[in-house]
Amino acid sequence: xxxxxxxxxxxxxxxxxxxxxxxxxxxxPPACLAMDxxxxxxxxxxxxxxxxxxxxxxMTGSFKADMQPxxxxxxxxxxxxxxxxxxxxETTREFQGKKVKMQEAAGVxxxxxxxxxxxxxxxxxxGVFSATDAHFIGKELVIADIARQSLVFYALTGEVxxxxxxxxxxxxxxxxxxDFCPGPAANSLVVAxxxxxxxxxFLDGKxxxxxxxxGEKEAEFHGCCNPVNVACLADGSIVTVEKSPTRVxxxxxxxxxxxxxxxxxxxxxxxxxxxxxVDSKGALYLASDQKNCIVKCVPGVADSAATAEPVAPxxx
Length: 316
What we know:
eight-stranded mixed beta sheet; mainly beta; 24 strands; Neuraminidase
């Protein structure tokens, strides 16, 4: 394995907690975060609501998608919001001599909205049965399908996405979590292969780099499975997010140098993911389903005397 030659490792930046926001608008646990080109943060809640914030944490809009089941993944591109949800079909099976009706996964659909919540189109995505994350890699929409432990690439043409390739048989996943992000080079992506305690980079569908090991040291990944989420900075640094307890670290693109984000409290309970997004200035946005808010972290060294509890409950 070698690192991406097109990306030069820079000094790993230090980060600190800046503030939290969204307690008054986020009424259900956050499921996914996505950042648009104008640094507007889109927060998908588990009930299908999308809440949009500007860079200062001020809500600029919201809508609830009428998708059943509710969407589980989201990405934004060119002023459009893509919400992805599983499709179910009713089947009848026989158990102990009795016929029982059941709902089974039948595929995945993608609905496209404008920022005001107006539905623009619907796209079927054949060949996948679940969606835990979605991003555009170049012009292709990529879906993380934990049901098949695959990353599936689609060219979006008309009402049915055309599968162009997939990455599979290389991931060790668990806890219903499967997260990835666009990589630092064109046509690359970075995967949180949490069951293997690895961060892996793929270029044109082929694995070109990886780092990570299970352990309790700061540079290692702890617990039953970590990291749960990843993100990339403009300089090629890779952000990893761990749960139980919460740890966020910035690695260089080789995985040899890392710095922790200081001042973070627990963002989730138990074995859950911590969605993350990055804006154009390098600020990190982390979703907390424990307190239903967004924590913003910015480059800089924290005051050693500052409190370690960055998230305060909303005022009553």
